[in-house]
Amino acid sequence: MLISHWRVIRPFLALALSLMCLPALATDKVVLQLKWEHEFQFAGYYAALWQGYYEREGIEVEIRSAATPDGTFLSPLDELVSGRADFAVGGTDVLISRGHGHDLKVLAPIFQRSPGALFALENQPIDTVEQASRLRIAAIPSDDTRVEARAMFYMNGIDSERISFVDVPVSIESLLEDKTDAIVTYGISAQIRARELELQLNSLSPSHHGIQFYGDTLYTSGKLARERSDLAERFLRASLNGWRYALEHRTNIASRISATLPRYVYQYDDFQTYNQQFAQLIDEYIFYPVVELGQIDSKRWQRTYDILDRLGEIESPYDPMTLLFKKPGTSQVSLSVLGWGGVTLLLLLVSLILWRSGHSRGWQVAVIVFMLFLEQGLEAWHRQDSRVQLSIKVLERLSGVRSHLEQVLARNLAELSGVAAFIAANPDISDNEFRNYAATILKVDPQLINLAAAPDLTIKFVYPLQGNEAAIGLNYRDNPDQLPAVLRAMETNEPIIAGPVNLVQGGRAFIGRAPVRVIKPNGEVTDWGVVSAPIDVAAVYREAGLLDPELGLTIAIRGKDGLISEGGPFYGRKEIFSHPDVVTQRVNFGGGSWQIAAIPSGNGYTNNPRLYLIRISSALVGFLILLLLMTYRRNLDSQKHYQGVLRRHTEFLREVETVAKVGGWRMDASGMISELSEQARTFLKLEGSDTKLPVNLFANQFVSSETLSVSQLLHEALNSNQSVDLEVKSRDDTSWYHIIADPLGDGSDREMVGAIQDITEKKIADAKIERQANYDSLTNLPNRELFRDRLETAMARTRRSGNAIALLFVDLDNFKSINDNYGHREGDLVLQEAAQRITKCLRESDTVGRHSGDEFTVILHDVGSDAVADQIASKLVNALGQAFIVGGAEVHCGASVGVAFYPGDADSAEGLIVNADQAMYEVKKSGRNGWYFYTKEMQLRSEHRHRLYNDLVAAIRDDQLSVHLQPILTTNSQKVIGCEALARWQRADGSWLSPAEFVPFAEETGLINQIDYLVMEKAAAALRDINCHREQSISLSINVSPRLFHTKDQSLERWMELIRKISQELPVIVEITERLLIEQTQEITGTLNELANMGIGISIDDFGTGYSSLSYLTRFPVTGLKIDRSFVDGIGTNSSSEPVIETILAMAGKLNIRVVAEGVETQAQLEYLKQLECDYVQGYFLGRPMPVTEFTALLQRKH
User: Fold this and answer.
1) Residues 328, 350: contact at Cβ < 8 Å?
2) Is the predicted pLDDT of residue 333 greater than 50, yes or no?
3) How far apart are CA 568 and CA 205, in angstroms?
């Protein structure tokens, strides 16, 4: 069934895979044209080529220098437009060239700031734009830098046409030869060349004076961006990756550029140094990683376009946003079409599968659904196509409206600018002169409602005056509603349109404003004021065609006051801008712009004949397909039915035999195997098609454990009319079979019919289960259960024979460190080798088993004396003490062996193992790597430890442990500033158990973590009550066991939660041991740092008694040390103690670590510590550990 389905699906999959592989087989060859000679300015493109980023995107790139070997320079634009290049690097020339009609697309600006700047020699100051405007300036005529310089002069109120640009080489040499006063060039190149010549330059950057142009910009042709958007996107992605690499590997890239890429025209004394310096200065222009590579700000892009437009560089206006490359998005309709197509293909495959498999209802439904989805997909395509066509119509009509609107506004602003120009030429204009000129203007342009002139921003002239008398004397500075628009007109030096606003006399109007600037005889430009005129909104709309009922568009406009990004909507509904089918354009005028949006009026997607044709055709085709398939299916089903009945009967028994691994056979009365099934012939490895063979030949294939042969057993069963049931093994000893048979018939018709089943896997499984139940899978030694069974057998034999046995309990020393450091895999190898070494040390009569983990047990039989066990134990310790090879390194393990004898040391197998284990434990306590014989004293010690453990568990559970506090005092004033919390245990019988006895035991058994938690909790509660009556809080010092940091349960988290709460209520100091710091695990370091971040002090207890190291005093957040009492005891009696104390105090003072000397027992010790200026002291001389009530009384006496 699966094969037939595969045959149906395979052609579809092959087609899909071939289509998917086509793009991967293609490599696109492109040319990137640079704008200058090879240098670090284009480092990202070289890096993308050298590092294989282009190759990974399936692109083969040729990077061409702008300079040719004959010294001429190529124009990137000409190369791109002519088709000789596919991508190019440019600047503001891309915006200008688009205005000249070239079809271009900007992929990404690489330089976020243009490197262009003005440079002059040190003796020529250029501190201001006005100062620079009076100089001779050398600039390349068609270069971006000259455009930027002109824009800077223009935006700072200086006519760029009167700037003296001179046609001389743009180089520092031209400055030195006095051919020019200043040059406009790349800042990086000028700075580096000046360094080579050891010159100081003055500079003036347009970016510091309102010109925020982008620098180097990657662009391509509009045709390539539209038709090969995937190529453009891949090229851009690889280029940006190359730039990231170049900026992260500047030195290497700069060196490779200098060594491998030629320059033909402009040379430097040291090209290598030039590129390295360029690599460092480039951050001033790229801003990576603060600004992501290729980022573009739409407002800044629009402002660049607007400035170029004002300079007259834009020949044909356009929307600059259309210049930016965007990956063609997938519209909702496109996604819908893809979705319909994918689902349709899937349903087609499902229909074919169901049809082939005979699911009549299923495939019929699938075909119907398939046709529905196909029809819906065609409808989606139809709607998409209709929407595109309608959008084109809307765009055409809206473009006409926008053009008319711009013309109307431009005409009104031109009239207003004419008034401003008239006043600028006659700054001392009289009221009569203004009235006559204004009357003429209003006659020419009836859309202007009135004219007003405001010298120094105060309205002085209005025409007509009637009805507008109140405006005379209005100071715009005192009118916050109109002042922003007035100032914007003055700052931009361009006419603007504000509003629309409602007029008092009715109607609405735009307010046009134009600045008036007067040029004095000395060339100085001054602001005279502003002229304003309301423009009739209705007249503007009517002339622009917005009110045309035949327009067929629903229009909205926003950008009130000419602020396209900030101004709100003022015409139409604002919802139009968010409509999915909206078409928008920009309306530009003077110093502002609006955004106009349109959607088709009414329902643009009504049904049409093509839609009905799609639906009817789909229904007819679906019906015909169903009819044909149903007829064919019916005939095919009938044929398959008869074939299937026959096939099922013939295959059924074969399938059953194969699944059950059973073969059938028949033996007649003459002893001839008359019939054998195919499976039975396979078992017997018979070749050929003959199904008959003598019973002897049949029986000789097997070996039976019965007394009679298989042949005899079969004959006897047939003659005696009995059943056969036996297990036999194949003659080649590779398989097991189960033979069963029953006799049938009487006399000469009697026969034996039976079955033969392969039970080899069952036999193997039974043997494996038995092995797993009794042997350790890792070492192949008897496991604990089998070993105990053998031990009980050996003990029974001893009771009969009187020959003693010895039980050895072997435990590998330090095995856990091997697992921890090398892993469990290497640990398992050590266990396997250890098992082999133990086995080699024993006699053949002895038994070894794996008890658990790294523990082994050994039975020594017929032990005549202790010397025999002693000798073998010695051999075991020596053998296991030899090095193991782990991970290529030698490691040493060692072993501890406990020996117990039977009879004598125990009466049962379990008791003997326990006593040998106790003996082994004594070896562990005495230093490991040895052997002990079991004694009664060991039993007594074990019982004592067991009782102590149970009592301690009960004491913790029943809250029998109490807290004593030992004061910590300042050395000089004996003022109590803190206390150490210590555990005390008064047993149920009233006796006190020394901490020296139960604390180490608790540490060993793991109960210490519970004790530490209990002590901290009780001590904190006591100090909380004490400190609430004190101005200065008493700090709490608590001890913590290293075991806490290695627990696998939640003890550490629970302890941290408690101490976090306590630290918020009182000062806490945690006392740790040097042993904890030596371990240096990441978890320990993290916990200590977390405690320090809570404001908790970290103090090293018993400092100097362990492995003291200065390194961990600086590596860990240690705030205090405790000098061990053994050094304090030696004051005045042990000459070596005092230098140690002095050294510790000197070291702590340098590290700003506080020191507590503990164990102070005499006045002499205290005086000595005072002399050394030890911070704090603690000891019985100053205060023993005491209950909370006594500690409270001590504080009252002290204070």
Assistant:
1) no
2) no
3) 35
- Is the Cα dihedral 147, 153, 157, 159 positive or negative? negative
Q: What are phi and psi of 966, to 5 degrees?
A: -105, 125
Say yes or no: domain 775-934 is CATH 3.30.1330.40: no
pLDDT for position 660: 62
Distance CA 1036, CA 1020 (A): 7
Domains 654-754 and 775-934 share a fold: no
- Mean per-residue pLDDT of the chain: 83
Q: What is the pTM of this model?
A: 0.36
Which string of b and e fits 1123-1143 if b means at least 16 CB within 10 Å? Answer: bbbebbbbbeeeeebbebbee
Does residue 1101 contact residue 1072 with C-beta atoms inside 8 Å? yes
SS3 738: strand
Q: Spell out the residues 6+ positions from residue 544 whose beta carbon is closer than 8 angstroms to its own.
A: 401, 404, 405, 408
Q: How many helices (H) and strands (E) does the chain have?
A: 41, 42
Neighbours of 157 (CB within 10 A): 15
CA distance 931 to 922: 9
Q: What is the pLDDT of residue 689?
A: 62
For 848, which DSSP code?
E
Query: Strand locations in 1046-1146, DSSP E?
Result: 1068-1072, 1097-1103, 1120-1123
CATH topology (fold) of 388-548:
Beta-Lactamase (3.30.450)
Structural contact between residues 137 and 131, judged by C-beta atoms closer than 8 angstroms: no
Nearest of 596, 563, 565 to residue 582 by alpha carbon: 596
Is 120 in contact with 135 (CB distance < 8 Å)?
Answer: yes
Handedness of CA 1014, 1015, 1020, 1025 (dihedral sign): positive
Class of domain 116-185+200-208: alpha beta
Are the beta carbons of 1023 and 1036 closer than 8 angstroms?
yes
CA atoms within a 13 Å half-sphere pointing along the CA-CB vector of 1065: 17
Segments of 122-213 assigned E as strands: 136-138, 164-166, 182-186, 201-204
How far separated are the first and last CA of the chain, in Å rounded? 97
Q: Which CATH architecture group holds 965-982+1009-1198?
A: Alpha-Beta Barrel (3.20)
Using left for φ > 0, alpha for ψ between -120 and 50, and beta otherwise, residue 814 falls in left
Q: Pull the structure tokens for residue 329.
A: 């998005």
Buried b / exposed e over 78-109, threshold 16 CB at 10 Å, is ebbbeeebbbbbbbbbbbbbbbeeeebbbbbb
- State the angle between helix axes of 250-260 and 229-248 in degrees (0 to 180), rounded to the nearest 10: 110
The stretches of 926-971 forming alpha helices (DSSP H) are: 936-957
Burial 30-46 (b: 16+ CB within 10 A, else e): bbbbbbbbbbbbbbbbb
CA–CA gap between residue 229 and residue 28 (Å, rounded): 13
- What are the structural domain ranges in the chain? 23-113+212-323, 116-185+200-208, 332-387, 388-548, 654-754, 775-934, 965-982+1009-1198
For domain 654-754, the question of CATH label 3.60.10.10 is answered with no
> Looking at the chain, how many residues does it have?
1199
Q: How confident is the model at residue 352 (pLDDT cuts 50, 70, 90)?
A: low
- Residue 342, classed as helix, strand or coil, is helix
CATH code for the domain defined by 23-113+212-323: 3.40.190.10
Least confident of 198-207, 426-435, 938-947: 938-947
153 contacts 310 by C-beta, under 8 angstroms: no
Three-state DSSP class for residue 476: helix
Contacts of range 652-655, beta carbons closer than 8 Å, 24 or more positions apart: 653/677, 654/678, 654/679
| Angle (nearest 5°) at CA 191 between 152 and 211 | 15
